[in-house]
From TrEMBL:
This is Similar to Uncharacterized transporter C1002.16c acc. no. Q9US44. The lineage of its organism: Eukaryota, Fungi, Dikarya, Ascomycota, Pezizomycotina. It is a multi-pass membrane protein. Residues 37-456 form the Major facilitator superfamily (MFS) profile domain. GO terms for cellular component: membrane. It is found in: Membrane. The chain crosses the membrane at residues 37-55, 75-93, 105-123, 135-155, 167-185, 197-220, 273-293, 313-330, 337-357, 363-384, 396-417, 429-450. The keyword Membrane applies. Pfam families: MFS_1. GO terms for molecular function: transmembrane transporter activity. Its main location: membrane.
């Protein structure tokens, strides 16, 4: 049986054809946007993830000894401090995005945090490491919510999850191979009189700076602004109007409404945004936990530092393939909640296997399951919110709030996975399982609420300010 949203979508497609809409040409335009927008966002978020999580690679490469981190809580402090400015500055950055321009703002941010990474390769004191991590959080704060805002603005509701998954999971896949890159950079030990861990920061920082300059000339702006910028010349004016028309047929918000502080306050008063934000916090907790502690967990299984780096990659490859398949399924079925819950269960089962089974093989298999669920739910929860809100101003506020709470998930992961709990980190494992149970309860609650509201919409109630809008279950 088809859901109500699927039936509505089928009717919508039929009416488009009857109205003479060239759906095939629209799809060609969408693919042009795909290739112009998603690769550069994926590349930039790849280096963003690497730059915020390569602390674990540097630690096992000798940073923990040189900066006197071992046996103290200094490593956790350096991890945690990143997320404080990251949380604080996400909403202000998103509010500036349309005013400054996507390419200018996101490209500049990448160049700046890349420069910070290069500087981290020359540190002599752990306290300066903490300062640099705080500055890194400030510059990275604007990128991911800005990217989510742009992607959700270009596509209709049931195209968005595989696009979110596309640019996010590509970055996760590249991030998974960062351990192998780090292993190679460790071999530069002694060049220029620098330790191997320092070259990890320096080379990866240089790559980020170069990509930031590329982004300045390639990232496209929002649909209603794209022709005003030099990066929008791959589309004609008529092409843009066609793309805006399909967005308006879907949710009628291709042209931005003005963002004012009164609107920001009104949107923040919508309790649904806070539920979506809490769900995203719970989704990022296992993702960050694996990112920051996977090499240490593998090392605790008895692997050498080098093997711990190399064995970090295969689970990420498996996770990206499986999670993208789940995103395609979610878009095809027009369902978000069931996919999220299934991936929550994967995280729980994977963590329990890793924590409580004996033998390296089963524990390593648990990492595959846990990482698959964790990485898959990041784009799934982002899309869950994107499908259930309208208006550009609300999308701007909602994506910033949601990704901001993702930073809280990073803080949570940094503190519950404690140094003295190594190598199994049981305290962190159970805390992470608790976040997955919360997400499952939130999905159940939202499903009941959305089903009730959709029923009222059929009786004449207006949802999200539009008479034809229905929530996605």
């Amino acid at each position: 049986m088809k859901s109500e949203t699927q039936k509505a979508e089928d009717v919508h497609s039929s009416s488009d054809r009857e109205a003479g809409v060239d759906i095939e040409y629209e799809q060609k335009l969408i693919h042009k946007v795909d290739w112009r927008l998603l690769p550069i966002l994926g590349a930039l978020y790849s280096v963003a993830l690497i730059d915020r999580t390569n602390m674990s690679n540097a630690a096992v490469a000798g940073m923990d000894v040189e900066l006197h981190l071992k046996g103290t809580n200094r490593y956790s402090i350096a991890l945690l401090i990143f997320f404080i400015p990251y949380f604080i500055f996400e909403l202000p950055s998103n509010l500036l995005l349309r005013r400054i321009g996507a390419a200018k703002l996101l490209g500049t941010l990448a160049v700046c945090w890349g420069a910070v990474m290069i500087g981290m390769g020359f540190l002599k004191d752990w306290r300066l490491l903490v300062v640099c991590r705080a500055i890194l959080g400030f510059f990275e704060a604007g990128f991911f919510p800005g990217a989510v805002y742009i992607v959700s603005s270009w596509y209709v509701r049931y195209e968005v999850q595989k696009r979110m998954a596309g640019f996010y999971l590509v970055s996760v896949l590249v991030g998974g191979f960062s351990a192998i890159l780090a292993y190679g950079l460790m071999q530069m030990k002694g060049i220029g009189g620098l330790s191997g861990w320092r070259w990890i920061f320096i080379i990866e920082g240089i790559i980020t700076v170069l990509l930031g300059f590329v982004a300045y000339f390639t990232i496209i702006d929002f649909p209603d602004k794209v022709l005003e910028t030099r990066n929008g010349n791959f589309l004609t004016a008529s092409d843009v109007e066609l793309l805006k028309a399909r967005i308006d047929r879907d949710r009628d918000d291709s042209t931005a409404d003005e963002i004012t502080w009164a609107k920001v306050g009104k949107h923040l008063g919508d309790w649904k945004l806070w539920v979506f934000a809490m769900m995203f916090m719970c989704s990022t907790t296992p993702s960050y936990a694996f990112g920051y502690f996977l090499p240490q967990i593998l090392r605790g299984m008895g692997f050498s530092a080098a093997m711990s780096q190399l064995l970090s990659a295969p689970p990420y490859i498996f996770a990206c393939i499986t999670a993208f398949g789940m995103a395609v399924l979610a878009d095809k079925t027009h369902k978000r909640g069931p996919v999220i819950v299934f991936q929550n269960l994967l995280v729980i089962v994977g963590l329990l296997i890793t924590a409580y089974t004996k033998g390296t093989g089963p524990r390593y298999f648990g990492i595959f399951l846990g990482l698959t669920g964790a990485q898959g739910n990041v784009p799934a929860v982002l899309s869950y919110q994107s499908n259930n809100i309208r208006m550009n101003s609300k999308r701007s506020v909602g994506s910033a709030l949601q990704v901001g709470f993702g930073a809280i998930g990073g803080i949570f992961a940094s503190t519950v996975f404690r140094e003295h709990d190594a190598p199994k980190y049981l305290n962190g494992m159970w805390a992470t399982i608790g976040t997955q149970l919360f997400t499952m309860a939130a999905v159940a609650t939202m499903t009941l609420y959305f089903r009730s509201q959709n029923k009222k919409q059929k009786e004449g109630k207006v949802l999200e300010g539009h008479p034809n809008f229905q929530y996605t279950l």
